[in-house]
Amino acid sequence: MTVVLGRVVATERKPNTPHEFHFWTALESPVGIGTIVRVDGRQPVNGQIPHVYGIVTEGFSYTDLLTPMHDVLSHDGAPGSAGFASTDRSEIRLYTAAVLRHIPEEPLQPVPMGDVFLAQEEDVNVALRMDGYLRDGQSTGIPIGVYRAGGTDATIYLDADFLVGPEAAHLNITGVSGLATKTSAVEWLLASVFAHFPDSRGSIAAVCFNVKGPDLCFLDQPGKLDDQDRALYEQMEVPAAPFSNVRYYAPLAARGYSLNTLRSNEALLHNVLPLTWGLREVLQYAEVLLNRDDIDAKADALIDFITRNVIDQPFSDPMLQRSHVVQSFADLEDWFRDVLHGLENGNKESWRTHHVATIRKVRNRLSNISLRCAGLVTDSGPVSDLPFGSFEDRATYVIDVANLEEDAQDLIFARVVSKLREHLERRDLGVKHVIVFVDELNKYAPGDGPDTYVRKMLLDIAERGRYLGLVLFSAQQFRSQVHRRVVGNSGTSVYGRMDGDELATPGYAVLSPAIRTKLATLEKGQLMVRHPHFTQPIFVRFPRPAVMTGRMGAEQYPQGGEVTLEVSVYRSLRALDSSIALNAVMDVIGLHEERDVLRARALTLQERPADVLGAFKGHLPRRVAQSVPHNVPRVAALRGTQGDDPYGV
Amino acid sequence: MSTDASFRASRAIRLLLPDAEIISSGDVAEESYAGAYAEAPRLLQAECVEGPVLRAIRVVGEPEVRFSAFLDGIQRVRIVSHWRGVPIIRGVVAAVVRVRVNRRFVAWGHRKPIVSERLYMPLRYLPCGMRDEVDGYPIVDTGVDGPNGSPPSRHPAALRAVALESIRRDRESAERQLAELWCTSVGEPIFIDGGISGSSGVACSECAVGVIKSHQTLYADGAALDLVMSLRRGERSSVFRVRSERRTEVVSWYLRLRDPRGHDAMFGLVRIEAAVRDDVALRANEISRWVLAEGAPLSLPDSRWDRMAYGIRDCEEFLRAIAS
After folding, report:
1. Confidence bin at A75 (pLDDT 50/70/90)
2. Averaged over A143-165, what is the pLDDT?
């Protein structure tokens, strides 16, 4: 039997409304900010006793003192003597609660006077309207955490249709750094989504951008959990295990030997793949790498001309010395050189309406892309990309861009997201939904500053992604500094411990002072959640993610050091075939050019053949044996000079 | 007085006297009637039982928390109607015992607080005949003959004074009921607001201590009065006897709870009543320590805070909340 927790009170000065009410409790009651309560009315409305569910948003405590001076007088100004008083003053615990739901919902009336009870698990389901999407056999609930108050222990579910689409979508997390809020919450939530995303809604995968440190570099390694964490996993029916299907992608380091990632320990390379793009992949997103001053109408027209008429097709022009097939940055440089040479020789100022100055400018900007994004963009090497078209259900694809320059990060982000969108539009990605996780949204989609290509992409996902199945999970420290349309389109918002300055910004004015105080003092593992079905924010507790933290991973699996070309290739190939020996690799490499070796390695990794070493060898250029050709016409000897005449006269 | 209660009283009066004038609530503050039944100040000779004459005695020992409960009553009075000047008064009396549990007060669970609400009216002057209720509302006839056998004056003020006296008696009766029940069923020390001599059961009980805050009657004159007025903080007077024809004999003494310097002479002065015992001096010292221990917390913002124990203020606040 539930015990009466409090009583609704209302005065003329502090009346109850349809959206807010007040109640008092005993001093020892377990009510606190964020507690969910149920009010049972006394008078039936339309023959039904009204029930109102609310969440405590503010608390007051006071005594019958008129002024603090009276207490001073009571104890002769000696605070220590207060303990000897025979009686404590009458004291009140008065709470304000925001209404979550009325039953019946019509007519919507002010909250009636009545007894207040602590919400039990079934009350929580009703209060948060979870009863609408937790039906047996048709549940679309995704556990996000556990609500705990006064002995009530209820799992809180998000509605998959409102988290992943199509009704609403996207999730945004805000919280200060270093308190296991943002990354941990996303890791936990992805595990929960993978465990509970209903089969009826199709397949789902995640693409995570690791933008700083080793945060997401060990998702496939087990982390440390305590009994409380395991109990939470069990309660929410999510396996307490690391992600089983993770693939890492990272650009190569500038020399091209090893991968530019903190996950470069030899023991973990089996699922780390290079991310390298060529001219074709990059030129489409040249806008990302070129600032506004570069891309005037003339330059834009020339880039468009090159993209449509020059790349990947034979190109010839009477002015040019030869025909070109441009497939790499090196080819493009040759083409530019030929064009400029032709202009100079012909003493012309323009070619095909493009002025020589524009051509020089575009050449300069495009040519140094491979330098600015060395390791990601290859001059002439093969391309290694995400498996667009063959994404796997419940797989996680981590792209490590933590060690890259800003330009390269932007390029990767823009291209990957664009490709995801293209494939989702064509329904040929391999999965029906993709969750894209981006941290540091302050940086990529700031509320002010220039309108970058990346920000436009993020806005596009936020506003239209849910129709495609492209879902943005984003995180940042300062929500107030992120573009309003990005966070505004997030159906679900999650808040960890917040900074006081951030809480003082206007965006948080809708929260009561008590809620803001609670947000500023949240413990690790606690979150405040806003979701379309919840009319008020809810506080939940979530378990530590079952994956190794970045810090632990970096200690346990230190980054691989600089290696020779042979060792680099050996490590890469061993990831595909553990029986390969270093000596065998060294024998195959022999005296081949470094460029050829790296190209062969990339092609082998891309193909993932059964005979790894054989395939690698096959991709290396054949070394032709030196031999004297038969039937070579003999060159007639020069006629000898006569006498001492050195001129042969 | 709540609107709902006023409405009920008005409806009852309308049924009873359709042409009576209903006085809208809030017109007259009930406190304005307080003077109508205030006793006239007087001085009585104290009959000392601790020495031949009253003297000032310092209370020995530290204050000691011993009271388990506090008892007080309230009365709420409002003239709700009149018929050709004859006042019809709604009176609410209430009494409660508040028990101290873990340094906080709760209503005594053994006996619920007493709350009664009645209409007080002199039926002999009203055209409604003799009756004891209307529309479920109890009626108290205040027009009965007085002790001298004559009916009360028709003067509205005189009728009002009689009604107020009747209400006061009802309040004392409610307080007495609770005090007697406590003394017979619990027996722990109880702090009673006012005198205890009205009930022999209470007046003779070892557990009942009456604390009187008002001093319309002072049991001292001449030098004794000087002594009482000059008692210092933590001092008590000698014990004296209090008796009258209609009341049970008790012993009594004055005690100064607070330093009167800078205040009027009655500041912090209470008179204590207890059952008659042989060892009155020891008992007076012991009880004085108990009463002094109730000096904190202050019962501010009540204007009588210098003499009122916090437990009594708690009783009053409680009763104001439940007796609308």
Report:
1. confident
2. 93
Return the higher-pLDDT residue of B46 and B36. B46
Pairs of CB atoms within 8 A across A/B: 51
Nearest-angstrom CA–CA distance, A250 and A259: 6
The more confident residue out of A623 and A69 is A69
Instruction: Quote the crossing angle between the two packed helices A406-426 and A453-468, to the nearest 10°.
Output: 20
In the block, tokens 């873990």 appear at: B102
Q: Cα(A246)–Cα(A243) distance, rounded to whole angstroms? A: 6
- Nearest-angstrom CA–CA distance, A11 and B2: 13
- Pairwise CA distance, residues A38 & A100, whole Å: 10
Write out the E strands in chain B. 21-22, 42-43, 47-48, 56-58, 69-83, 86-101, 104-107, 114-121, 133-134, 137-141, 190-193, 208-212, 217-218, 235-237, 240-244, 247-256, 269-274
Q: Do A87 and B298 touch (CB under 8 A)?
A: no
d(CA A146, CA A237): 12
More confident position, A450 or B317:
B317
Q: Which residues contact B31 (CB under 8 A, 6 or more apart)?
A: none
Residue B45 CA to residue A126 CA, distance in Å, equals 74
Contacts of B101 (CB under 8 A, 6+ apart): none
Q: Does residue B170 carry a pLDDT above 90?
A: yes
> Distance from first CA to last CA of chain A, Å, rounded?
129
**Which of A142-146, A482-486, B297-301 has the highest average model confidence (pLDDT)?**
A142-146
Extract the tokens encoding A492: 């679900």
Give A638's DSSP letter.
P
Query: Is the model's pLDDT at B25 over the cut of 60?
Result: no
d(Cα A89, Cα A205) in Å, to the nearest integer?
60
Q: Which residues of A69-99 are buried (b: 16+ CB within 10 A; e: fewer)?
A: ebbebbbeeeeeeeeebbbbbbeebbbbbbb
Residue with tokens 């003239």: B79
B134, B126 Cβ separation under 8 angstroms: no
Taking a contact as any Cβ pair under 8 Å apart, which residues of chain B between 271 and 310 contact chain A?
293-294, 296-298, 300-301, 310
| pLDDT band (50, 70, 90) for residue A561 | confident
What ipTM score was computed for the predicted complex, to two decimals? 0.73
All residues of chain B having their beta carbon less than 8 Å from the beta carbon of residue A75 are: 296-297
pLDDT, residue A645, reads 55
Whether residue B322 lies within 8 A of chain A, CB to CB, comes out as no
Q: Which residues contact B276 (CB under 8 A, 6 or more apart)?
A: B204, B241, B249, B250, B251
Residue B29, pLDDT score? 42
What pLDDT is recorded for position A632? 56
Query: Residue written as tokens 């024809």?
Result: B245
Highest mean pLDDT among A94-98, A261-265, A457-461 belongs to A94-98
Q: How far apart are CA A148 and CA A34, in angstroms?
A: 10
Tell me if A277 sits within 8 A of A284, measured CB to CB.
no
B314 CB neighbours in chain A (<8 A) are 87, 90
Q: Quick check: A10 pLDDT over 70?
A: yes
Q: Identity (one letter) of the amino acid at B317?
A: E
Query: Which amino acid is it at A604?
Result: T
* CA separation for the pair B150, B145 (Å, rounded): 5
Query: A274: which strand partners?
Result: A250
Residues A530-551, mean pLDDT to the nearest whole number: 94
- The answer on pLDDT for A629 being more than 60 is no
Quick one: pLDDT at residue A249? 94
B64 touches chain A (CB under 8 A): no
The token pair at B117 is: 């609400």
A551 Ramachandran zone, left/alpha/beta (phi>0; psi -120 to 50) = alpha
